[in-house]
Amino acid sequence: MMRIGIPKEKSEGETRVAIVPISVPKLLKLGFEVVIEKGAGENSGYTDTEYEEKGAKTKTLDEVMKCELIASIDVPDFKNMKKGQMLACVADPFRNLQQTKKIIEAGITLLSLEVIPRRLSKGQSMDVNSSQDNLSGYKAALMGSQHIAKMVPMMMTSAGTVRPAKFVIQGAAVAGLQAIATAKRLGGAIQAIDVRLAAKQDTESLGAKFIDVPGWKDAESSSGHASLFTDKDLQNAFDNALMNAVKDADVVITTARLFGANAPKLFFGKENNEKMTKEMKEGSVIVDMNTDTGGNIVGSKEGEIIEKDGVTIVGIPMLCRTVPNTASMLYSNNITNFVTVLVSEGKLTINQEEQVLTGDEGGISAGYGGILIAEDGKIHGNHTKLMEAMK
């Protein structure tokens, strides 16, 4: 029988678990024995008894790490893993090159779940980025609303009219769109900006006003990811349009994140980034969702809520961790859907023809493959950019 092991997450601040009890019967049906570390789900609200009632076995970490397939969120302690074992997690290989190199050298088959070819329809139910970003965007809107000293919705009262709080949301991918939708439901007046033309229709469909940039040019890669403008005049136009909106905002939420690299700053111009808080209204709030990858805002601090120039900056990263029960359930569904591509005739198998694993034409973009990072001590051939980064 195939065995899948789920260790308790050890990273500071990590509250989620990779597999929840409701997924256990599905894994059993696929032919897995499910082995979970004792107490692994306690921070997410899932007890050992719940796992056992669904058919899982609760064991020590040593027993868990002997399983043929290890499923986790962050990279676990892999020092006792053997050659040929599979590790499915969010490895972030470009930002953790040395750790990734050690995993590869150990002969572990590394499956990095965030490196999924996003335009494969088959992969959508396996996309951990989307499931977790959706929750983070929701919580970003709530946190922004929580920290401003005014009501969010418009109110007509006998004592006077309360104007709605103004939100500016940068980035209109999954997290940004959910932040827009949530802020709108709260009654806010929303403006949004993104470098991708497709984002205009998406944001306006949710009731936001899209911030137009004169001389607009699309900055979307063939994979659907955002890329950066290179035209200086367009960069200046973008910064000017965004600054005009930011000056009048009560809440600014930044969601922009780059695959395998540090988060981009909110503005292209260094001067604009540095003076931003001075230009904003006293008592306004910024929610920087990407402080774990360098942050979108100059002065934001990972894991902290600070004040700068009278502006509150919320720097809590991975906001999905603040709703661990739901976040774990969605992540668990992603994992359960993903492992179906690893099973063939009751055995764990790497199918080189499976695009989820090896990529579509070039994967996420030219030079990237799929979820399969390495096997048998070698980086998969489609991951040419990772090969270059490891030189």
Amount of beta strand: 15-25%
Helix content: 25-40%
How many alpha or pi helices? 12
Contiguous uncertain segments of 5+ residues:
none
CA(first)-CA(last) distance: 39 Å
Mean pLDDT equals 93
Can you tell me the overall shape? globular
The tally of beta strands, per DSSP, is 19
The profile of the biggest β sheet is: 8 strands, mixed
Structural class given helices, strands, pairing? alpha/beta
Strand order in the sheet with the most strands: 3-2-1-4-5-6-18-19
Whole-angstrom Rg? 22 Å
Describe the protein.
The structure is a single chain. 46% of the residues are buried. The longest helix has 20 residues, at 128-147. The chain is globular. The strands form 4 sheets. An 8-stranded mixed beta sheet has the order 3-2-1-4-5-6-18-19, with helices on both faces. The chain has a 7-stranded mixed beta sheet with strand order 11-10-9-12-13-15-14, with helices on both faces. Strands 7-8 form a two-stranded antiparallel sheet. Helix content is 30%, strand content 18%. It starts with a strand and ends with a helix. With 391 residues, the protein is of the alpha/beta class. Helix 5 (128-147) runs parallel beside helix 6 (174-186) and helix 5 runs antiparallel to helix 10 (324-338). It is built from 12 helices and 19 strands.
